[in-house]
Amino acid sequence: MTSVWGERVATELALREEEGIAMRIQVRSATVRLVQGDITTQSVDAIVNAANSQLAGGGGVDGAIHRAAGPALMEETKRRYPEGCPTGQAVITESGNLDCRHVIHTVGPIWDGGLEGEPELLKSAYRNSLQLAVDHNCQSVAFPAISAGVYAYPIDLAAEHSLEEVTNFLRECEDIGEVRFVLFSDGAFGAFGRVLERFEEIVKEW
Prior knowledge:
The chain is of the alpha/beta class. It has one domain (22-204): 3-Layer(aba) Sandwich (Leucine Aminopeptidase, subunit E, domain 1), CATH 3.40.220.10. The protein has six helices and seven strands. Strands 1-2-7-6-3-5-4 form a seven-stranded mixed β-sheet, sandwiched between helices. Strand 6 (140-143), helix 5 and strand 7 form a beta-alpha-beta unit. Helix 5 packs parallel to helix 6 (186-203). The longest helix is centred in the middle third of the chain and has 18 residues, at 118-135. It holds the Pfam family Macro. Residues 19-200 form the Macro domain. InterPro entries: Macro_dom (IPR002589), Macro_dom-like (IPR043472).
């Protein structure tokens, strides 16, 4: 028997196959979407980079964004933020060769069992990124799953904490029209989908 969740995903995939969008919910005036794909190809106002505290580039999403943006991104980052960026904070640059206006660089926490304030630091990374987007008139923002790669944040918790923070922010702020989570792996996409399905019922009451 096909579940309601399965029917919804099938419908969204059929309607939006080109974009890779498989699920969305409405949070007041904003849309939260899940996309399985490459964050560097997203056409939005701001792409969020899961950076390290030195803002030195690296592997994973960070490396992919810098490669796609070209050397100008690293040059600007080093010039404007020579001291790097603390965990949970965010900084903003132009976008180089990417199809967006800005790159927002945020530093998520390294998972250490959840005993070192990781949940609040992760939420802070999302919150500060969204506030920078608002401050720079960015109405659409694409996020990766911050900290869920080499920083080893458990994907189910990462999905829960990130979507909780983003939906709470959008509940209070109507300056952003779309937040897009761009997820590379099947596991990440499934984890975020399960949480988003549950949150859909919650935000209907807002």
